[in-house]
Amino acid sequence: MAIVLAATGLFLYLRLGSALDRTIDQGLEARAADVAALVEQADTGLQEAQNLRGPDNGFAQVVGAQGTVVDSTPGLAEQPLLAGDQLARARRGQSFFARTIEDEQLRLLAMPLVAQDQRLVVIVGASLEPRADALADLEGQLLLGGPIALLLASIAGYALAAAALRPVERMGERAATISAASPGRRLPVPRADDEISRLGGRLNDMLARLEAALERERALVSNASHELRTPLALLKTEIELALDEPDSAPALAAALRSAGEETDRLAQLADDLLLLASVDSGKLPLRRTRVAVAELLDAIATRFRRRATDADRSIEVAAATDLVVLVDRRRLEQALANLVENALRHGAGTVRLEAVEAPSALVLHVTDGGQGFPPDFLDIAFERFSRADGSRAGAGLGLAIVSAIAHAHGGTATASNTTQGGADIALTVPVTEPA
Fold this sequence. Notes:
The chain is built from 8 helices and 12 strands. By secondary structure, the protein is of the alpha+beta class. It folds into 3 domains: 2-135, PAS domain (Beta-Lactamase, 2-Layer Sandwich), CATH 3.30.450; 195-280, Helix Hairpins; 289-430, Histidine kinase-like ATPase, C-terminal domain (Heat Shock Protein 90, 2-Layer Sandwich), CATH 3.30.565. The strands form 3 sheets. Strands 2-1-5-4-3 form a 5-stranded antiparallel beta sheet, with helices on both faces. 22% of the residues are buried.
């Protein structure tokens, strides 16, 4: 602000000086024209031309060819105002000069003139003291008003900055009191529609997202604990039954088989949770290879065909033999196996695996002929521990893993119902590896 005020003062000072100089020069030119007209009349002299010496201490002088003073206004010395080189320059054309006479600064205008059969030089002048007084007065006002203006501007700027940052201070105080133990609290947002208000709104949105993520983590821990408790309880029960009948070989074998199944369930649950943890940390590694789609779907169908036959159901595959996609085969097999597992467990009728080409992508459909998904389940189908029937059958992680694998490949997973009413899960993956 000091620099701005100093630059403004300097501009005003120079501007006023230039304007005064221009006014003085215009006055001298007008006076020179009057003197020239008076000399050309030749019926009177400058001694009687009182109007040529005004209140601004203006004066005039006429110098002859030899440098002698032909005529001058009253009170002017007989010594010519110009001499030597300056007078020679004046004879060549109109010129301005600056002189100091008796400690008084003067501004002179010399103009050549032919009159009375002579080559004359008309010299008019004016004192520069009024100009100096005006500039000194302006300088004094600037030196006095500048610091005052700087002080007032500083106070106003400080007050304005404090008022603008007061909402930030309030938001900072509120932020210091927000923790996981106090959900739902938000930062105070000022009413003004400015940058601070928009920042507060975005921070509140971020707090809402963090609370939602924290709630999901709590739900994950709760659901995972429940899922782990069930097989552990069953495993403990089987062990206790085996201990109660240590001499019964059939009972012991049955207990061990059941314990093995629960152990497999625990291992599968642990693997699923580890995979989702890798997804959350952004570290799900993929080893992409060129995979023949028809051969991949046939392999999945072969793995589950005996189970489907035991349930009096069938598995069909529909895919062109020339379809090839660049994917992680193991991960994609895991996703498709989860979908077929869900279709056999919760669906009915024929399970169909179909590959459809799309622009720059491949869409893999797994459908069944059952009742399909409830309408209110479609929006949360890929959330962790979500179940369409509300039961505790299964861990509810299969579709979440399918979605995670699809996104890791740069694709998507969607859930819908077919026109016949069965469930349809579509897994879309890019044909080539994304950049």
